[in-house]
């Protein structure tokens, strides 16, 4: 049970906040002003303080400053409630005072739950238990969940499931990633989830799926993303080799997506056909950043863990080097090779697979496997899957530009 201190003068708003948080299993203690709350905190330990920015007798900003002299954010989170009419200077002052989150009013219950969940996640606290448990059971679909109607399952895995959904307030199609409740106590799964959420919220690219919403509902964390209609590149590959222009368009769009990630200091780490959705119009969208990592992944060099899908991992990553933009481009090259030849570049039992990737033996050029294939694209793919890092093409933006020029691709932004 999480102890929450609430400082709110408006009795009706206070009662509403108490009701919402109590439903989530939190224990809420209400105080009429900041001075009273400061005294109350001497007798009880709280994990979170929710306070109105401009309350009487020690307002929220002053209370935050006082709390930060005695508590750091690992021990105590502060959520400041600010009216939407407040000036920008007030919001900056609140953050400078040490507030961890700011919630603008008027706000709905969903906004409140998201902010509280975010605060508690920063403290490393698991979400409260709830009586509701949504199973990946198609017999119970469609059903309502967190402002969305879940329609059917798009995919399942150890983390949970992804659902096709519809946003209730406007009917917007969406894809909802729901973590399995057992993931609530798994720090690695939660870290991966929050990292994907933060990265998607930060990125702005027509070639990367965009995030709509996120939060905690019915005992589960969720991430709502735009629904991208089309087929995965993996599904297209099962139908046989693709036309060169189609492969060039896919390579261009994914290279544009990677150029944006790499410019932001992000490495994708799991480039493969299953993570690419190709629309009927031919536009490709990168849809999964679950393994993406900001900065160089030094942790990988300190353990035997391999992150990503083996058949698309660069040889240096398998040998223990950190994932990098160059390894992302290798994964793209292997993907394009597969789309061009109709067969996986690397396959077989695990040990044979690892030995083949790390052997340094080059893949057969696409043009040798498929006579008549454009030499420019064949050479580019070969340069992207070069085992020698010194020889490998590893600049995503340049690759996108070359593909656009060689195949006269338009710059369709959407």
Question: What would your notes on this structure say?
Answer:
The chain has 414 residues and is α/β, with parallel strands linked by helices. The chain has three domains: 3-122, Rossmann fold (3-Layer(aba) Sandwich); 138-226, 2-Layer Sandwich (Phosphorylase Kinase, domain 1), CATH 3.30.200.20; 231-406, Transferase(Phosphotransferase) domain 1 (Transferase(Phosphotransferase), domain 1), CATH 1.10.510. It is built from 14 helices and 16 strands. It has helices at 11-23, 34-40, 60-68, 88-97, 109-122, 187-202, 233-238, 244-263, 315-318, 325-341, 350-358, 366-369, 375-384, 396-406; strands spanning 3-7, 27-31, 48-52, 77-83, 101-105, 143-145, 148-157, 160-167, 173-179, 211-217, 220-226, 231-232, 266-267, 276-278, 284-286, 293-294. A six-stranded antiparallel beta sheet has the order 6-7-8-9-11-10. Helix 4 links the parallel strand 4 (77-83) and strand 5 (101-105). Helix 8 (244-263) runs antiparallel to helix 10. It is elongated. It starts with a strand and ends in an 8-residue tail after the last helix.
Write the layout of secondary structure elements.
Blueprint: E1 3-7, H1 11-23, E2 27-31, H2 34-40, E3 48-52, H3 60-68, E4 77-83, H4 88-97, E5 101-105, H5 109-122, E6 143-145, E7 148-157, E8 160-167, E9 173-179, H6 187-202, E10 211-217, E11 220-226, E12 231-232, H7 233-238, H8 244-263, E13 266-267, E14 276-278, E15 284-286, E16 293-294, H9 315-318, H10 325-341, H11 350-358, H12 366-369, H13 375-384, H14 396-406
Helix pairs in contact: 8-10, 8-14, 10-13
């Amino acid at each position: 049970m999480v102890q929450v201190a609430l400082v709110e003068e408006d009795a009706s708003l206070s009662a509403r906040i108490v009701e919402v948080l109590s439903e989530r299993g939190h224990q809420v203690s209400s105080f009429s002003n900041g001075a009273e709350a400061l005294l109350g905190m001497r007798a009880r330990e709280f994990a979170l303080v929710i306070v109105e920015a401009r309350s009487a007798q020690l307002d929220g900003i002053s209370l935050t400053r006082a709390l930060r002299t005695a508590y750091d954010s690992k021990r105590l989170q502060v959520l400041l409630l600010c009216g939407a009419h407040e000036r920008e200077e007030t919001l900056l002052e609140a953050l400078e005072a040490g507030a961890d989150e700011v919630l603008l009013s008027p706000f709905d219950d969903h906004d409140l739950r998201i902010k509280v969940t975010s605060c508690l996640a920063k403290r490393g606290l698991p979400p409260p238990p709830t009586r509701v448990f949504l199973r990946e059971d198609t017999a119970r679909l469609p059903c309502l969940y967190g402002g969305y109607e879940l329609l059917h399952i798009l995919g399942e895995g150890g983390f949970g499931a992804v659902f096709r959904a519809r946003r209730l307030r406007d009917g917007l199609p969406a894809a909802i990633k729901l973590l399995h409740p057992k993931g609530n106590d798994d720090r690695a799964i939660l870290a991966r989830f929050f990292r994907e959420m933060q990265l998607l919220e930060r990125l702005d690219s027509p070639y990367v799926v965009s995030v709509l919403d996120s939060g905690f509902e019915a005992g589960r964390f969720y991430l709502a993303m735009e629904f991208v209609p089309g087929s995965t590149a993996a599904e297209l590959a099962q139908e046989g080799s693709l036309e060169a222009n189609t492969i060039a368009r896919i390579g261009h769009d994914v290279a544009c997506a990677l150029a944006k990630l790499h410019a932001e200091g992000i490495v994708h780490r799991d480039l493969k056909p299953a993570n690419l959705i190709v629309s009927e119009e031919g536009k490709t969208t990168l849809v999964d950043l679950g393994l993406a990592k900001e900065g160089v992944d030094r942790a990988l060099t300190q353990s035997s863990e391999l992150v990503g899908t083996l058949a698309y991992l660069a040889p240096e990553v398998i040998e223990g080097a950190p994932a990098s933009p160059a390894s992302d481009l290798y994964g793209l090259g292997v993907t394009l090779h597969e789309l061009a030849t109709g067969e996986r570049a690397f396959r077989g039992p695990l040990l044979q697979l690892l030995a083949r990737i790390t052997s340094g033996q080059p893949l057969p050029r696409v043009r040798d496997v498929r006579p008549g294939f454009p030499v420019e694209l064949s050479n580019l793919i070969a340069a992207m899957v070069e085992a020698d890092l010194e020889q490998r093409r590893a600049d995503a933006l340049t690759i996108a530009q070359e593909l656009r020029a060689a195949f006269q691709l338009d710059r369709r932004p959407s």
